[in-house]
Amino acid sequence: MRNISLKAIIKKNVYIGNNVTIEDDVYIDSGSIIRDNVIIKKGSFIGANSIIGEYLGDFFKGNNKEHICIIGKNSVIRSGAIIYGDVIIEDNFQSGHRITIREGSRIGKNVRIGTNSDIQHQSVIGNYVSIHSGVFVGEETIIEDFVWLFPHVVITNDPTPPSNKISPVRIKRFASIAAGSIILPGVIIGENSLVGAGSVVTKNVTEGMAVVGNPAKEKCLADKIKNKFTGKPAYPWMYNFHRGMPWEKAGFEEWIKKS
């Protein structure tokens, strides 16, 4: 059974499986594959040659189960994306090209994932998370709300690779991890903390602390770091950055009072 809105736009050479719901004003570009048990909500865009609801391992064992994949309202998924079954993505999601999101992952509202990023299975990503290009997120990682992962960050989870026991990373809200950093298994990145570019983080990062180096060591409190253009404190970043955030109009202080 298919439930496809007459207001949806389906371009040439799109395959649509069974038990698929496509709501109003959805646009699916050429060559995409929408597998069974997919729900694409109102106003979403699926770029060319994407696969939504990709098969899990049970398919190859001849025991394919129903794995629902939900794409939230007003999402923009650019060309070449592969999103597996048993993935739930909430509203206003945006991706770059050729991303992968593996099964069991749960992604909140207003999340952005950049080109060539790879989210491994059973990861949990909160609201307003920004993941830049070329980021690898290991399985079962937990990323809380308002976190920034800049280009080519690697989040690991196996303390003695290869092994059968993983130790997932947790990144708490408002943390920023700068480009090229590696977070080792089991590490907790504290709220409002900053990991400097190219760091290798081997132990927990204290709330509000800036760390840098290989291995990463405490540099100072993050709020001591100055913006080189203005000379004012750069962190916590929420007081300086507003674009696309829920405090864009009122400012962070007013927003946090009401939240």
What does this structure look like?
With 259 residues, the protein is mainly β. It is built from 2 helices and 32 strands. It has helices at 57-60, 252-258, and strands at 2-4, 9-10, 15-16, 20-22, 27-28, 33-34, 38-40, 45-46, 51-54, 69-71, 76-77, 82-84, 87-89, 94-95, 100-101, 106-107, 112-113, 118-119, 124-125, 130-131, 136-137, 142-143, 148-149, 154-155, 170-171, 176-177, 182-183, 188-189, 194-195, 200-201, 209-212, 217-221. The chain has a 10-stranded parallel sheet with strand order 1-4-7-10-13-16-19-22-25-28, with no helix packed on it. The protein has a 10-stranded parallel sheet with strand order 3-6-9-12-15-18-21-24-27-30, with no helix packed on it. A hairpin with a 4-residue loop joins strand 31 and strand 32 (217-221). The chain is globular, with a radius of gyration of 20 Å. The termini are far apart. 37% of the residues are buried.
